[in-house]
Amino acid sequence: MNVKIPRGTQDILPEQVKLWQWIEAKVRHITKKYRYEEIRTPIFEHTEIFQRGVGDTTDIVQKEMYSFQDRGGRDLTLRPEGTASVVRSFVENKMFGHPNQPIKLYYMGPMFRYERPQSGRYRQFVQFGVEALGSADPAIDAEVIALALEIYQAVGLKNLNLVINSLGDIESRLKHREALINHFKPRIGEFCKDCQSRLEKNPLRILDCKVDREHELMKTAPSILDYLNEDSQEYFAKVRQYLDQLGVEYTVDPTLVRGLDYYNQTTFEIMSSAPGFGAITTLCGGGRYNGLVEEFGGPETPGIGFALSIERLIAAMEAEQVEVAFDDQLDFYIVALGDKAKDYSVKLLADLRNNGFSADRDYLDRKMKAQLKSANRLNAKYTIIIGEDELEKGEVQVKNMESGEQKEVKLAEFIDVVQQWSK
Ligand code: HAM
Question: Is the CB of 309 under 6 A from ligand 1?
Fold first, then answer.
Protein backbone atom coordinates (compact mmCIF):
# COMPACT_ATOMS: atom_id res chain seq x y z
CA MET A 1 0.00 0.00 0.00
CA ASN A 2 1.28 3.49 -0.85
CA VAL A 3 0.84 5.33 2.42
CA LYS A 4 2.49 8.57 1.30
CA ILE A 5 0.64 11.72 0.28
CA PRO A 6 0.38 12.17 -3.55
CA ARG A 7 3.08 14.30 -5.16
CA GLY A 8 2.25 17.99 -5.35
CA THR A 9 -0.34 17.88 -2.56
CA GLN A 10 -0.02 18.78 1.10
CA ASP A 11 -1.65 18.12 4.44
CA ILE A 12 -2.58 21.31 6.17
CA LEU A 13 -2.12 20.44 9.81
CA PRO A 14 -4.06 22.06 12.67
CA GLU A 15 -1.28 24.55 13.49
CA GLN A 16 -1.27 25.80 9.87
CA VAL A 17 -5.06 25.67 9.58
CA LYS A 18 -5.16 28.51 12.11
CA LEU A 19 -3.29 30.66 9.61
CA TRP A 20 -5.52 29.52 6.74
CA GLN A 21 -8.65 30.39 8.68
CA TRP A 22 -7.22 33.76 9.64
CA ILE A 23 -6.53 34.49 5.95
CA GLU A 24 -9.95 33.19 4.89
CA ALA A 25 -11.61 35.50 7.43
CA LYS A 26 -9.73 38.50 5.99
CA VAL A 27 -10.72 37.49 2.45
CA ARG A 28 -14.40 37.13 3.36
CA HIS A 29 -14.38 40.46 5.17
CA ILE A 30 -12.90 42.26 2.16
CA THR A 31 -15.19 40.62 -0.40
CA LYS A 32 -18.16 41.66 1.73
CA LYS A 33 -16.98 45.29 1.70
CA TYR A 34 -16.87 45.18 -2.12
CA ARG A 35 -20.22 43.27 -2.30
CA TYR A 36 -18.90 40.09 -3.88
CA GLU A 37 -20.97 37.03 -2.93
CA GLU A 38 -19.71 33.50 -2.58
CA ILE A 39 -20.51 30.86 -5.17
CA ARG A 40 -19.70 27.16 -4.76
CA THR A 41 -19.48 25.12 -7.94
CA PRO A 42 -18.58 21.41 -8.25
CA ILE A 43 -14.98 20.21 -7.98
CA PHE A 44 -15.40 18.45 -11.34
CA GLU A 45 -17.08 19.55 -14.55
CA HIS A 46 -17.56 18.15 -18.03
CA THR A 47 -14.09 18.26 -19.65
CA GLU A 48 -15.51 20.38 -22.48
CA ILE A 49 -16.09 23.28 -20.06
CA PHE A 50 -12.35 23.75 -19.69
CA GLN A 51 -11.45 22.84 -23.28
CA ARG A 52 -13.76 25.56 -24.53
CA GLY A 53 -13.39 27.96 -21.62
CA VAL A 54 -9.68 27.91 -20.86
CA GLY A 55 -8.75 27.08 -24.46
CA ASP A 56 -7.49 24.07 -26.40
CA THR A 57 -4.03 25.49 -27.00
CA THR A 58 -3.23 26.34 -23.37
CA ASP A 59 -0.81 24.36 -21.22
CA ILE A 60 -3.62 23.76 -18.76
CA VAL A 61 -5.79 21.94 -21.29
CA GLN A 62 -2.98 20.26 -23.21
CA LYS A 63 -0.86 19.02 -20.33
CA GLU A 64 -2.23 19.69 -16.92
CA MET A 65 -5.77 18.45 -16.52
CA TYR A 66 -6.83 15.62 -14.24
CA SER A 67 -9.36 14.11 -16.60
CA PHE A 68 -11.20 10.82 -16.22
CA GLN A 69 -14.24 8.94 -17.35
CA ASP A 70 -16.85 8.13 -14.74
CA ARG A 71 -18.71 4.83 -14.64
CA GLY A 72 -21.32 6.25 -16.99
CA GLY A 73 -18.66 7.02 -19.61
CA ARG A 74 -18.81 10.79 -19.10
CA ASP A 75 -15.62 12.77 -19.69
CA LEU A 76 -14.99 14.77 -16.54
CA THR A 77 -12.13 16.92 -15.26
CA LEU A 78 -11.11 18.10 -11.80
CA ARG A 79 -11.34 21.86 -12.14
CA PRO A 80 -7.96 23.45 -12.93
CA GLU A 81 -9.37 26.96 -12.36
CA GLY A 82 -12.62 28.66 -11.40
CA THR A 83 -13.61 31.09 -14.16
CA ALA A 84 -14.97 28.54 -16.65
CA SER A 85 -17.14 26.91 -13.96
CA VAL A 86 -18.45 30.25 -12.75
CA VAL A 87 -19.37 31.30 -16.28
CA ARG A 88 -21.03 27.92 -16.87
CA SER A 89 -23.07 28.43 -13.71
CA PHE A 90 -23.84 32.06 -14.62
CA VAL A 91 -25.37 30.91 -17.90
CA GLU A 92 -27.05 27.76 -16.54
CA ASN A 93 -28.68 29.67 -13.67
CA LYS A 94 -29.59 32.62 -15.92
CA MET A 95 -27.86 35.06 -13.59
CA PHE A 96 -27.89 37.55 -16.47
CA GLY A 97 -31.59 38.02 -15.67
CA HIS A 98 -31.00 38.83 -11.99
CA PRO A 99 -31.89 42.40 -10.99
CA ASN A 100 -28.59 43.09 -9.15
CA GLN A 101 -26.24 43.67 -12.06
CA PRO A 102 -23.33 43.35 -12.37
CA ILE A 103 -23.17 39.92 -10.75
CA LYS A 104 -20.18 39.95 -8.40
CA LEU A 105 -19.06 36.53 -7.25
CA TYR A 106 -16.16 34.97 -5.38
CA TYR A 107 -15.02 31.42 -4.69
CA MET A 108 -12.45 29.73 -2.55
CA GLY A 109 -11.58 26.09 -2.99
CA PRO A 110 -9.22 23.45 -4.35
CA MET A 111 -8.03 23.45 -7.98
CA PHE A 112 -6.03 20.70 -9.68
CA ARG A 113 -3.25 20.93 -12.25
CA TYR A 114 -0.82 18.22 -13.25
CA GLU A 115 2.24 20.47 -13.11
CA ARG A 116 5.79 19.75 -12.08
CA PRO A 117 5.72 20.48 -8.36
CA GLN A 118 8.17 22.99 -6.95
CA SER A 119 8.11 25.68 -4.32
CA GLY A 120 4.82 27.57 -4.75
CA ARG A 121 3.52 25.12 -7.35
CA TYR A 122 1.23 22.29 -6.33
CA ARG A 123 -0.99 19.77 -8.05
CA GLN A 124 -3.78 20.59 -5.64
CA PHE A 125 -3.92 24.20 -4.48
CA VAL A 126 -6.60 26.50 -3.12
CA GLN A 127 -7.64 29.41 -5.24
CA PHE A 128 -9.55 32.43 -4.07
CA GLY A 129 -11.01 34.21 -7.07
CA VAL A 130 -13.56 36.85 -7.96
CA GLU A 131 -15.61 37.31 -11.13
CA ALA A 132 -17.64 40.42 -11.97
CA LEU A 133 -20.07 39.72 -14.79
CA GLY A 134 -22.22 42.17 -16.67
CA SER A 135 -20.26 45.42 -16.72
CA ALA A 136 -17.86 46.80 -19.32
CA ASP A 137 -17.04 49.85 -17.21
CA PRO A 138 -13.27 50.25 -16.78
CA ALA A 139 -13.99 51.34 -13.19
CA ILE A 140 -14.80 47.74 -12.35
CA ASP A 141 -11.42 46.64 -13.72
CA ALA A 142 -9.86 49.06 -11.24
CA GLU A 143 -12.14 47.76 -8.47
CA VAL A 144 -11.13 44.14 -9.09
CA ILE A 145 -7.43 45.04 -9.11
CA ALA A 146 -7.81 47.11 -5.93
CA LEU A 147 -9.60 44.22 -4.23
CA ALA A 148 -6.74 41.85 -5.05
CA LEU A 149 -4.20 44.30 -3.68
CA GLU A 150 -6.22 44.92 -0.55
CA ILE A 151 -6.12 41.22 0.28
CA TYR A 152 -2.33 41.14 0.16
CA GLN A 153 -2.08 44.33 2.17
CA ALA A 154 -4.55 43.03 4.77
CA VAL A 155 -2.35 40.01 5.48
CA GLY A 156 0.63 42.30 5.99
CA LEU A 157 2.49 42.02 2.66
CA LYS A 158 4.48 45.01 1.48
CA ASN A 159 6.71 43.86 -1.37
CA LEU A 160 4.15 43.79 -4.16
CA ASN A 161 4.39 44.66 -7.84
CA LEU A 162 1.32 45.14 -9.93
CA VAL A 163 1.84 44.59 -13.66
CA ILE A 164 -0.90 45.43 -16.14
CA ASN A 165 -1.40 45.12 -19.87
CA SER A 166 -4.11 45.35 -22.48
CA LEU A 167 -4.72 42.64 -25.04
CA GLY A 168 -7.25 44.85 -26.79
CA ASP A 169 -10.61 43.93 -28.24
CA ILE A 170 -11.19 41.27 -30.90
CA GLU A 171 -10.31 43.63 -33.78
CA SER A 172 -7.03 44.69 -32.16
CA ARG A 173 -6.16 41.14 -31.26
CA LEU A 174 -6.69 39.93 -34.83
CA LYS A 175 -4.33 42.58 -36.20
CA HIS A 176 -1.73 41.73 -33.58
CA ARG A 177 -2.18 38.03 -34.33
CA GLU A 178 -1.36 38.60 -37.97
CA ALA A 179 1.73 40.61 -37.04
CA LEU A 180 2.88 37.84 -34.69
CA ILE A 181 2.48 35.18 -37.39
CA ASN A 182 4.49 37.29 -39.85
CA HIS A 183 7.15 37.85 -37.20
CA PHE A 184 7.66 34.23 -36.17
CA LYS A 185 6.79 32.29 -39.33
CA PRO A 186 10.11 32.64 -41.22
CA ARG A 187 12.06 31.16 -38.28
CA ILE A 188 9.45 28.99 -36.58
CA GLY A 189 11.69 25.95 -37.19
CA GLU A 190 13.99 27.25 -34.44
CA PHE A 191 11.18 27.04 -31.89
CA CYS A 192 9.85 24.15 -29.81
CA LYS A 193 7.15 21.79 -31.09
CA ASP A 194 4.49 23.50 -28.96
CA CYS A 195 5.34 26.90 -30.44
CA GLN A 196 5.22 25.46 -33.96
CA SER A 197 1.69 24.25 -33.41
CA ARG A 198 0.80 27.53 -31.64
CA LEU A 199 1.84 29.60 -34.66
CA GLU A 200 -1.43 29.27 -36.57
CA LYS A 201 -3.74 28.29 -33.74
CA ASN A 202 -2.80 30.91 -31.17
CA PRO A 203 0.44 32.83 -31.80
CA LEU A 204 0.01 34.91 -28.64
CA ARG A 205 0.79 31.75 -26.68
CA ILE A 206 4.32 31.74 -28.19
CA LEU A 207 5.09 34.83 -26.10
CA ASP A 208 4.32 32.80 -22.99
CA CYS A 209 6.58 29.86 -23.91
CA LYS A 210 8.93 28.80 -21.14
CA VAL A 211 11.24 26.82 -23.46
CA ASP A 212 11.98 29.55 -26.02
CA ARG A 213 11.90 32.46 -23.61
CA GLU A 214 15.44 33.56 -24.55
CA HIS A 215 15.06 33.41 -28.36
CA GLU A 216 15.97 36.75 -29.98
CA LEU A 217 12.65 36.93 -31.86
CA MET A 218 10.86 37.02 -28.51
CA LYS A 219 12.46 40.34 -27.65
CA THR A 220 11.58 41.94 -30.99
CA ALA A 221 8.04 40.51 -31.21
CA PRO A 222 5.35 43.06 -32.13
CA SER A 223 3.86 44.61 -29.01
CA ILE A 224 0.11 44.40 -28.59
CA LEU A 225 0.09 47.99 -27.37
CA ASP A 226 1.01 49.11 -30.92
CA TYR A 227 -2.05 47.31 -32.29
CA LEU A 228 -4.74 48.58 -29.96
CA ASN A 229 -7.54 50.33 -31.85
CA GLU A 230 -8.95 53.59 -30.56
CA ASP A 231 -11.62 51.99 -28.36
CA SER A 232 -9.13 49.65 -26.75
CA GLN A 233 -6.64 52.45 -26.18
CA GLU A 234 -9.32 54.57 -24.54
CA TYR A 235 -10.45 51.68 -22.41
CA PHE A 236 -6.93 50.98 -21.19
CA ALA A 237 -6.30 54.67 -20.53
CA LYS A 238 -9.44 54.79 -18.37
CA VAL A 239 -8.35 51.75 -16.35
CA ARG A 240 -4.98 53.40 -15.71
CA GLN A 241 -6.66 56.70 -14.85
CA TYR A 242 -8.82 54.97 -12.22
CA LEU A 243 -5.82 53.13 -10.78
CA ASP A 244 -3.99 56.45 -10.56
CA GLN A 245 -6.98 57.98 -8.82
CA LEU A 246 -6.89 55.14 -6.28
CA GLY A 247 -3.18 55.72 -5.72
CA VAL A 248 -2.39 52.23 -6.99
CA GLU A 249 1.12 51.86 -8.41
CA TYR A 250 1.68 49.65 -11.46
CA THR A 251 3.93 48.98 -14.40
CA VAL A 252 2.64 48.35 -17.91
CA ASP A 253 4.19 45.23 -19.40
CA PRO A 254 3.16 44.56 -23.03
CA THR A 255 4.52 40.99 -22.77
CA LEU A 256 2.02 40.02 -20.06
CA VAL A 257 -0.23 37.65 -22.02
CA ARG A 258 -1.43 35.24 -19.26
CA GLY A 259 -1.72 31.50 -19.69
CA LEU A 260 -5.43 31.21 -20.47
CA ASP A 261 -7.17 31.94 -23.76
CA TYR A 262 -10.24 33.83 -22.67
CA TYR A 263 -8.58 37.18 -22.01
CA ASN A 264 -9.03 40.46 -23.85
CA GLN A 265 -8.61 44.12 -22.87
CA THR A 266 -7.19 44.41 -19.34
CA THR A 267 -4.88 41.72 -17.94
CA PHE A 268 -2.86 41.94 -14.75
CA GLU A 269 -0.66 40.06 -12.34
CA ILE A 270 0.61 40.81 -8.88
CA MET A 271 4.12 39.62 -8.09
CA SER A 272 6.04 39.37 -4.88
CA SER A 273 9.33 41.25 -4.83
CA ALA A 274 10.23 39.95 -1.36
CA PRO A 275 13.85 38.85 -1.14
CA GLY A 276 13.88 35.11 -0.54
CA PHE A 277 10.60 34.45 -2.31
CA GLY A 278 10.95 31.45 -4.65
CA ALA A 279 11.48 31.38 -8.39
CA ILE A 280 7.78 31.71 -9.15
CA THR A 281 6.98 35.27 -8.19
CA THR A 282 3.43 35.55 -9.51
CA LEU A 283 0.98 35.71 -6.64
CA CYS A 284 -2.17 36.44 -8.54
CA GLY A 285 -3.46 36.82 -12.09
CA GLY A 286 -6.56 38.00 -13.82
CA GLY A 287 -8.15 40.01 -16.54
CA ARG A 288 -11.13 40.67 -18.74
CA TYR A 289 -12.90 37.92 -20.63
CA ASN A 290 -15.60 39.64 -22.68
CA GLY A 291 -17.10 36.98 -24.96
CA LEU A 292 -16.74 33.99 -22.64
CA VAL A 293 -20.38 34.04 -21.55
CA GLU A 294 -21.44 33.92 -25.22
CA GLU A 295 -19.06 30.97 -25.70
CA PHE A 296 -21.13 29.14 -23.08
CA GLY A 297 -24.41 29.97 -24.83
CA GLY A 298 -25.34 33.04 -22.77
CA PRO A 299 -26.20 36.55 -23.93
CA GLU A 300 -23.45 39.09 -24.60
CA THR A 301 -21.98 39.76 -21.15
CA PRO A 302 -18.62 41.29 -20.34
CA GLY A 303 -16.63 39.89 -17.43
CA ILE A 304 -13.48 40.43 -15.42
CA GLY A 305 -11.88 38.63 -12.50
CA PHE A 306 -8.73 37.27 -10.95
CA ALA A 307 -7.56 34.35 -8.87
CA LEU A 308 -4.80 33.84 -6.34
CA SER A 309 -3.65 30.80 -4.47
CA ILE A 310 -3.58 30.82 -0.71
CA GLU A 311 -0.40 28.68 -0.86
CA ARG A 312 1.53 31.42 -2.66
CA LEU A 313 0.08 34.09 -0.44
CA ILE A 314 1.35 32.15 2.61
CA ALA A 315 4.75 31.66 0.94
CA ALA A 316 4.96 35.43 0.46
CA MET A 317 4.01 35.98 4.12
CA GLU A 318 6.80 33.61 5.10
CA ALA A 319 9.29 35.39 2.83
CA GLU A 320 8.34 38.72 4.42
CA GLN A 321 8.28 37.15 7.89
CA VAL A 322 4.81 38.46 8.67
CA GLU A 323 3.87 37.62 12.26
CA VAL A 324 0.24 36.80 12.99
CA ALA A 325 -1.25 36.81 16.49
CA PHE A 326 -4.04 34.24 16.70
CA ASP A 327 -6.79 34.31 19.23
CA ASP A 328 -6.53 30.62 20.09
CA GLN A 329 -6.92 30.60 23.87
CA LEU A 330 -8.84 27.88 25.65
CA ASP A 331 -11.12 29.36 28.33
CA PHE A 332 -10.87 26.49 30.83
CA TYR A 333 -8.82 23.39 31.38
CA ILE A 334 -10.01 21.02 34.11
CA VAL A 335 -7.41 19.26 36.19
CA ALA A 336 -9.18 16.48 38.06
CA LEU A 337 -7.44 14.31 40.66
CA GLY A 338 -9.02 11.07 41.78
CA ASP A 339 -11.98 9.08 40.47
CA LYS A 340 -14.70 11.16 42.08
CA ALA A 341 -13.23 14.39 40.77
CA LYS A 342 -12.88 12.90 37.30
CA ASP A 343 -16.49 11.74 37.35
CA TYR A 344 -17.54 15.21 38.42
CA SER A 345 -15.56 16.89 35.70
CA VAL A 346 -17.66 15.19 33.00
CA LYS A 347 -20.68 17.27 33.93
CA LEU A 348 -18.70 20.42 34.74
CA LEU A 349 -17.05 20.31 31.32
CA ALA A 350 -20.44 20.00 29.63
CA ASP A 351 -21.83 22.90 31.71
CA LEU A 352 -18.94 25.13 30.67
CA ARG A 353 -19.39 24.31 27.01
CA ASN A 354 -23.16 24.73 27.22
CA ASN A 355 -22.53 28.20 28.57
CA GLY A 356 -20.44 29.12 25.57
CA PHE A 357 -16.94 28.57 26.97
CA SER A 358 -14.25 26.54 25.28
CA ALA A 359 -13.09 23.88 27.70
CA ASP A 360 -11.14 20.64 27.85
CA ARG A 361 -9.81 18.20 30.46
CA ASP A 362 -7.29 15.47 30.99
CA TYR A 363 -8.27 12.10 29.50
CA LEU A 364 -5.03 10.26 30.17
CA ASP A 365 -5.16 9.97 33.95
CA ARG A 366 -1.99 11.99 34.32
CA LYS A 367 -0.43 13.40 37.48
CA MET A 368 -1.30 16.93 38.54
CA LYS A 369 1.97 18.38 37.22
CA ALA A 370 1.48 16.88 33.76
CA GLN A 371 -2.12 18.10 33.64
CA LEU A 372 -1.03 21.62 34.53
CA LYS A 373 1.56 21.46 31.79
CA SER A 374 -1.19 20.55 29.32
CA ALA A 375 -3.23 23.53 30.50
CA ASN A 376 -0.23 25.74 29.80
CA ARG A 377 0.49 24.26 26.41
CA LEU A 378 -3.14 24.61 25.37
CA ASN A 379 -2.98 28.28 26.28
CA ALA A 380 -5.78 28.01 28.87
CA LYS A 381 -6.97 31.24 30.47
CA TYR A 382 -8.09 29.42 33.61
CA THR A 383 -7.34 26.04 35.10
CA ILE A 384 -9.95 24.45 37.34
CA ILE A 385 -8.44 22.11 39.90
CA ILE A 386 -10.78 19.54 41.41
CA GLY A 387 -9.53 17.22 44.13
CA GLU A 388 -11.43 14.93 46.52
CA ASP A 389 -11.15 17.45 49.40
CA GLU A 390 -12.46 20.32 47.31
CA LEU A 391 -15.37 18.20 46.12
CA GLU A 392 -16.37 17.35 49.66
CA LYS A 393 -16.37 21.04 50.53
CA GLY A 394 -18.44 21.71 47.41
CA GLU A 395 -15.85 23.98 45.78
CA VAL A 396 -13.07 24.07 43.20
CA GLN A 397 -9.80 25.95 42.84
CA VAL A 398 -9.62 28.20 39.81
CA LYS A 399 -6.23 29.48 38.72
CA ASN A 400 -5.85 32.48 36.44
CA MET A 401 -3.00 31.26 34.24
CA GLU A 402 -1.86 34.74 33.32
CA SER A 403 -1.66 36.33 36.77
CA GLY A 404 -1.09 33.09 38.68
CA GLU A 405 -3.83 34.13 41.10
CA GLN A 406 -5.80 31.21 42.58
CA LYS A 407 -9.34 31.39 44.00
CA GLU A 408 -11.81 29.04 45.59
CA VAL A 409 -15.20 29.06 43.96
CA LYS A 410 -18.34 27.37 45.24
CA LEU A 411 -19.55 24.72 42.82
CA ALA A 412 -23.14 25.79 43.21
CA GLU A 413 -22.24 29.29 41.98
CA PHE A 414 -19.48 28.27 39.61
CA ILE A 415 -21.04 29.08 36.23
CA ASP A 416 -22.50 32.39 37.49
CA VAL A 417 -19.12 33.41 38.87
CA VAL A 418 -17.09 32.58 35.77
CA GLN A 419 -19.65 34.27 33.58
CA GLN A 420 -19.05 37.47 35.54
CA TRP A 421 -15.31 37.15 34.84
CA SER A 422 -15.75 36.87 31.12
CA LYS A 423 -17.86 40.04 30.96
P1 HAM B 1 -3.97 31.53 -13.35
O2 HAM B 1 -2.97 32.56 -13.65
O3 HAM B 1 -3.89 30.25 -14.06
O4 HAM B 1 -5.38 32.20 -13.59
O5 HAM B 1 -3.95 31.23 -11.80
C6 HAM B 1 -4.18 32.25 -10.87
C7 HAM B 1 -3.32 32.05 -9.65
O8 HAM B 1 -3.49 30.73 -9.14
C9 HAM B 1 -1.82 32.14 -9.89
O10 HAM B 1 -1.38 33.47 -9.92
C11 HAM B 1 -1.30 31.42 -8.66
O12 HAM B 1 -1.40 32.23 -7.49
C13 HAM B 1 -2.32 30.31 -8.50
N14 HAM B 1 -1.82 29.05 -9.08
C15 HAM B 1 -1.95 28.62 -10.34
N16 HAM B 1 -1.40 27.40 -10.50
C17 HAM B 1 -0.90 27.06 -9.28
C18 HAM B 1 -0.22 25.91 -8.76
N19 HAM B 1 0.04 24.86 -9.53
N20 HAM B 1 0.13 25.91 -7.46
C21 HAM B 1 -0.16 26.96 -6.65
N22 HAM B 1 -0.80 28.05 -7.09
C23 HAM B 1 -1.17 28.11 -8.37
C24 HAM B 1 -6.58 31.59 -13.38
O25 HAM B 1 -6.73 30.53 -12.83
C26 HAM B 1 -7.75 32.43 -13.83
N27 HAM B 1 -8.99 31.62 -13.64
C28 HAM B 1 -7.81 33.73 -13.08
C29 HAM B 1 -8.98 34.58 -13.47
C30 HAM B 1 -10.15 34.68 -12.84
N31 HAM B 1 -9.04 35.33 -14.55
C32 HAM B 1 -10.22 35.91 -14.60
N33 HAM B 1 -10.92 35.49 -13.57
Answer: yes
